[in-house]
Fold this sequence. Notes:
The structure is a homotetramer. The first copy, chain A, is an alpha+beta fold. Chain A has one domain: Thiol Ester Dehydrase, Chain A, CATH 3.10.129. Chain A contains three helices and six strands, in the order ββααββββα. Chain A has a six-stranded antiparallel beta sheet. The termini of chain A are far apart. Mean pLDDT of chain A is 90; it is low at 1-6. Chains in contact: A-B, A-C, A-D, B-C, B-D, C-D. Strand 3 (74-84) of chain A pairs antiparallel with strand 3 of chain B.
Amino acid sequence: MNPDQDYHWPDLAGRIVNREHVMPVRVYYEDTDHSGVVYHASYIRFCERGRSDFLRLIGVEHKDLRATEGGPDAYAVKRIEADFMHPAMIDDLLIVRTRLVEMRGASFLARQKIERGETTVFSMNVLVVPISREGRPRRFPKPVQDVFVSFLYREENSA
Amino acid sequence: MNPDQDYHWPDLAGRIVNREHVMPVRVYYEDTDHSGVVYHASYIRFCERGRSDFLRLIGVEHKDLRATEGGPDAYAVKRIEADFMHPAMIDDLLIVRTRLVEMRGASFLARQKIERGETTVFSMNVLVVPISREGRPRRFPKPVQDVFVSFLYREENSA
Amino acid sequence: MNPDQDYHWPDLAGRIVNREHVMPVRVYYEDTDHSGVVYHASYIRFCERGRSDFLRLIGVEHKDLRATEGGPDAYAVKRIEADFMHPAMIDDLLIVRTRLVEMRGASFLARQKIERGETTVFSMNVLVVPISREGRPRRFPKPVQDVFVSFLYREENSA
Amino acid sequence: MNPDQDYHWPDLAGRIVNREHVMPVRVYYEDTDHSGVVYHASYIRFCERGRSDFLRLIGVEHKDLRATEGGPDAYAVKRIEADFMHPAMIDDLLIVRTRLVEMRGASFLARQKIERGETTVFSMNVLVVPISREGRPRRFPKPVQDVFVSFLYREENSA
């Protein structure tokens, strides 16, 4: 492979710092609407990227789930509570922060925030459940639960 | 204009029945994701279409807001609480139902449901506020408040 | 079922007039971008809806393809050539027109236009091929080819 | 600011190597459709990100355009010709490559490719024009033209 084309993209899936996942998101035209700001549902998509990359980094992404016989095949969002605090704009560099705050055999709760510099523009609690390929509820296999538990955010984690 | 091309599209903005707005949404490829079902944030977009068309039909859409001196220029979503109950699929015909349930001088609360036949696939409470072009909070002008109040959903409205 | 809720939505999948499929599309916030107009890739999504509904109406949609043993399972876009002629805006009522202009055993070419009143805002030629579930090229079964051929647009069709 | 939160995200806007802009794009759920692959219009969005970041890096982004009196305010896509060669999938790491291949006073032509490893999944030629806030055609100010010309891709640039 041509060395000019051997690209290494560090941090493409963000970073985990003190059990909090952090990733950057640039606001492009596709994320905005005619009122001049980021379209409200875009923040929800950005948060899904944060959750996917957190799970990717800790090894419990949907691909990893399928390794277990009788285990779940995917994650499904069950409930969200979201606050839209300040509008973000085209070209903004946003930071998506994700914390796993609760873990049960058949669900986990994540708390997510999107910031622009010092300003919190959006925050969301999201309940996610493991499901089978047909959409039926499943339980997390013990090894997956253990991984989640090891990354549960604790107040003493904040500096 | 050629009479073959004089199209009339009844109900393009849905209908209001007993103070509830109802509109159909067909699920296309763009609304789904690789897991085979409707992508979660798509329901939030469908609900925005329902709110926009409800406001369009009762004459208090963003264009109508700007008619008043010092009045608001737009609507902004402040908070949503959403439950994802059953997955919807490609080609499904979904019904988006919207009810205005609370109205204050500087916000309104809508309750929305998305159904497929007899099944409720999604439901959401959404708090919306009027804002100026620069994003500052505004109050609804009295005539606009009166329109909202006249369409507030009451339990005795359900058959 | 409550008669107030027995909704009939005529023309939800558009209409075929003189072998041309016609459907309305309302521009919502989600389709626009911060520059104040419809985001360019939105027109491409609107055209996909037009093709899907045309195929739905003539009975050769992806679901119908799968009925044939060894036949294709889906459609895939191979090539598009698109011209963006005039910007469309929030709240516009656009008309998507779709014509099937060429049909071969393993592809079809559609010509699509999006209009706002008398103005053509967008036009596109799109080459679509039938594929298997794994993405391999397939040929159209003869009965499907016959349906396409019967809906090929001919110049004498235009009024 | 807490040093744990002093994030530096190198290459967020990609890199320019031999006058070719290169940026990574991860495929998330939002980019796919129920057929299991990346939705066709998603590639067009990815390419827009590549162009925006190329222009951002060389200092002729839409914000930079507005600095000139009487100059353009924005870029508008006029025409695209796109080939969809191989399907990309959830979790793929794609590389978007952008080359400026022609520059005139009132337009530029970019050639873009999206690759997954050694495979080209998508390629596109796109004609872009500068416009005023009201959508009227404008010419590029000379300093902007000079920047574009200095980044025009030449065959001798490829290794």
